[in-house]
Amino acid sequence: MTDVRRPAGALTAPAAPFLFRAHPGPGLEVAFTSVDAGNLAFHVSGVVGVSGTPAAGRTSSKGGDGAGDDANGAGDPRERVKASRRGIEAALGIPPGRTEYLTQVHSARVVPAAGRGWGESPAAEEADALVSPTGRDPLAIMVADCLPVVFASRRSVEATAAVGRDGRARVSGPGAGGTGPLTGPTAVAHAGRRGLLDGILQNTVERMRREGSGHEPGDIQAWIGPAICGRCYEVPEQMRRDGTAQIPATHSTTTWGAPALDLPAGAQAVLESLGVTVHRSPVCTREDSRLFSHRRDPGRGRFIGLVWRREEGQGTSPREGSEGSEGNEGNEGSQGSQGSQGSEG
């Protein structure tokens, strides 16, 4: 069942650096950052921290980017990004440098988690979705108008997954199926216009099921984060026709009467057709200054959607049952993580 008002999970009160944070399963974190987390993309060097609030774990001597002048790299954009990434990891209890990113290229390519974070690997792989067979790899996807989609899952009905040294799921016997907790593979995906139409979400779901996620309706859950909405994503009329021909739910018109595409609605339709339970943010990046938006403010920064399952006793988690305000989610944003990204709005 779809809830377009509020994603599933126990929420913490949304505060910097998160716009939304949930705890939908044992040790499971799902989060979308805000501008208060700072710019999280190395390929973007614009000013960050619109509100003037420092990112998590950082101190700011001046309003604006919240990066500070001394300990966090002064005016060096790469050092500011590193400090921002470490701040997010500290807030979630993730070891510094352990979160995995991608060089996003608006493709339909899905790759498995490498087991090495941004602080350990010199270059991120070119792809637009990342799957963790165990769910224990911290995964991030970067956006600024495109859709950040975060996935969690239950193990397959047919088999439980034993994990080999390579981190791959291995069939080892009967499993609990669709009634169990969300302890299966996790994933993140970047769905811009091109990736959505080319099948990035279908490919991500297919890869998760190959790695041990269940096939029953609801065994995979997806959080569509804040993105540019159908009221704001103006495109040429031919582009709208082409998109609508593939995914009818994308058809839209802007508030000023121009042809548009509704990427969140299209992503929801695709995922639900695959039996995925969808939790969709109502927040539009172009309309909401708490988020980076390439169309509203090109080059300012990228926020992330993130998923991670901690081991018992590792890190911190939201207090079970606590809630925050509605509408704290993240969506559109076509950017990469460590490498370069496109600018599609």
Automatic annotation (TrEMBL):
Q: What does this protein do?
A: Purine nucleoside enzyme that catalyzes the phosphorolysis of adenosine and inosine nucleosides, yielding D-ribose 1-phosphate and the respective free bases, adenine and hypoxanthine. Also catalyzes the phosphorolysis of S-methyl-5'-thioadenosine into adenine and S-methyl-5-thio-alpha-D-ribose 1-phosphate. Also has adenosine deaminase activity.
Tell me which stretches of the chain form a coiled coil.
Answer: none
Q: Which Pfam families match?
A: Cu-oxidase_4
- Extract the Gene3D superfamilies matched here: CNF1/YfiH-like putative cysteine hydrolases (3.60.140.10)
Keywords linked to the UniProt accession = Copper, Hydrolase, Metal-binding, Transferase, Zinc
What ranges does the record give for the region Disordered, renumbered to this chain? 51-88, 305-345
Recorded protein name is Laccase domain-containing protein
Family of this protein: Belongs to the purine nucleoside phosphorylase YfiH/LACC1 family.
Superkingdom classification of source:
Bacteria
Does the keyword Transferase feature in the UniProt annotation?
yes
Q: Which InterPro entries match?
A: Cu_polyphenol_OxRdtase, Cu_polyphenol_OxRdtase_sf, Cytotoxic_necrot_fac-like_cat
The residue ranges flagged as biased composition, category Low complexity, are 331-345
Query: Which catalytic reaction applies to this protein?
Result: adenosine + H2O + H(+) = inosine + NH4(+); adenosine + phosphate = alpha-D-ribose 1-phosphate + adenine; S-methyl-5'-thioadenosine + phosphate = 5-(methylsulfanyl)-alpha-D-ribose 1-phosphate + adenine; inosine + phosphate = alpha-D-ribose 1-phosphate + hypoxanthine
**PANTHER family, sorted:** PURINE NUCLEOSIDE PHOSPHORYLASE LACC1, UNCHARACTERIZED PROTEIN YFIH
Which stretches are tagged as biased composition: Basic and acidic residues? 76-88
